[in-house]
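Lab notebook, bench 4. Still working through the backlog of constructs that have no structural model yet. Next entry is a single chain of 312 residues. Request: give me the structure tokens for it.
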Amino acid sequence: MSARGVAVRLLGAIGVLWAAATFTFFVQTLLPGDRATLILNQESGQTIKRTASELAPINAKYGFDDSIVGQYLHYLGGLARGDLGSSYQLHEPVARIIGDQIGPTIVLTVTALLFAWAISLVLTIATAKRGRVRSTLGSGFETIAAGLPHYWLGVVLLVVFAIDLKWFPVEGETSLSGLVLPALTLGIPLAGFIGQVTRDEFEKVLDQPFVTSARARGMGDLGVRTRHALRHAVLPGITLSGWALGALFSGAVIVESVFARPGIGQVLVSAANARDIPLVSGVVMLLAFVYVVANLLVDLAYTVVDPRMRTA
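Model written out:
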């Protein structure tokens, strides 16, 4: 990758982070209602109207008396220094709150991505161009899986495999067995998307001359599919994985709620309901950062899978 390419990608990454921060700040700030009143009511547990003398210390503490532009510039300055601020609701540094909760979410999303790739690759290798019936069944599964809502799929897996069959814990488990159903809930729809783009490319590659040449040299069908066709067919799926990591983090909000798992999803829901701008912004910035890093990793993965990309 050239120096110019690196610079363009870094500028693009900064732009994505800035856009995410700006959007989150203004959406949360411009919502109806007084933030100082909300903070006081959360602290006291009472939903009542506050006097100006009660609100003044809160407005001064958090800078709510400043103009929107002033608050925005102060917010961006904090982000530039690596300061995500303190939660209005929990009165702790946002970085600490996220750090305490991010571990289970990372484990869940990475496991879901691995499940998605495993399902899509096995299905593609086993069914692509292996007769009309098998090929139709494989592509049909991918189409249905891609359209499954996370909430519905999570409930179905929970009822069937945890409640009825009792193969897995019902909810709230952080063990390996408790990870399987949440990861499948996230991974199965993604497997449908990855499988669709991989299958199309896989079938095209099987018709290429170098595949015919490999067969002529005596290589078996499975070897041709795994050693030759698969390397070229996974490139569209790798591209999709960059988007998928961000989508998996977003889907984790729903899945963690369904399975009562700890993680960043529960933090985001609670912070959004409380209009906790620093905490919501911190989580959104994290998601944007994951998206940026994932796309950079996709670029690196391209050069590993297809060395010709290194000179592009």
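Notes after review: The mean pLDDT is 79. The CA atoms of residues 132 and 138 lie 10 Å apart. Flag for follow-up if needed.
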